[in-house]
Amino acid sequence: MPLATVNITREWNRSTSMQGQELPERIPTRLYLISPAEIDLDSFETAFKEALEGGDVACFQLRLKDRPRDEIVTAAKRLMPLAQAANVAFLLNDDPQLARELGADGVHIGQDDMPFKAAREIVGANAIVGVTCKNSKHLAMQAAENGADYVAFGAFFPSTTKDETTRADVDILSWCSGLIETPCVAIGGITVENAPALVKNGADFLSVSAGVWNYKAGPKQAVRDFNRMIDKVIATC
Length: 237
Ligand SMILES: Cc1ncc(COP(=O)(O)OP(=O)(O)O)c(N)n1
Ligand SMILES: Cc1nc(C(=O)O)sc1CCOP(=O)(O)O
Ligand SMILES: [Mg+2]
Hints:
alpha/beta, TIM Barrel, eight-stranded parallel β-barrel, two-stranded antiparallel sheet, 9 helices, 10 strands, binds the ligand Cc1ncc(COP(=O)(O)OP(=O)(O)O)c(N)n1, binds the ligand Cc1nc(C(=O)O)sc1CCOP(=O)(O)O, binds magnesium ion
């Protein structure tokens, strides 16, 4: 399985403070893009290429909900090479078996999907397996103990992409980044304008769909503006 060289890990840079102690510096939060639930492949491929041209993106998740398998396969075969050529991890939503068959870099599973251990068994130790934890510290600790590569909290804001969500508070991001090594992903209605609080509170990744694909100035400018916002916020941390 071609594994993108992107590591979903949180490493701490170290710098020496004035008093000579070592202080960890924040690794900048990174973007994790999610496809719309339904796409026209030709026009989305154009938008996807534009987003990748806009700047740093860590991951992309293909999340075609309730679409025929052959449509998902066709989209993955078109989009995955673009992602991996740009060193962006390509994840599939919901379906570990299909992720493995497609040679994806990983899979995202929620609480109503296949259990983590079964998913890990299918995709193997080298693939990325992320887990939805909504607003639950218990789910996050359980996923981390099981070996999840990231835990996803949300929704932090109302989402136009997913109807049924559980509201999460930014405190869970600072709790997670202060307690567990597993990287934390923030998701749900995230925009350039409302994301600073998520970055400030320790989100390792911002998982965004409409905030990029529906951005007024286009997906390339969206990625650029998200990264500029992240750099600005991290500089003040
Ligand atoms: C990064 C990320 N976080 C959460 C989700 C939601 O997953 P799930 O709860 O399984 O809901 P669906 O996306 O399957 O509708 C996600 N996909 N990605
Ligand atoms: C896929 C997904 N999961 C969520 C959760 O709360 O678990 S919110 C969501 C949709 C993310 O898209 P947008 O950035 O357009 O809100
Ligand atoms: Mg799911």
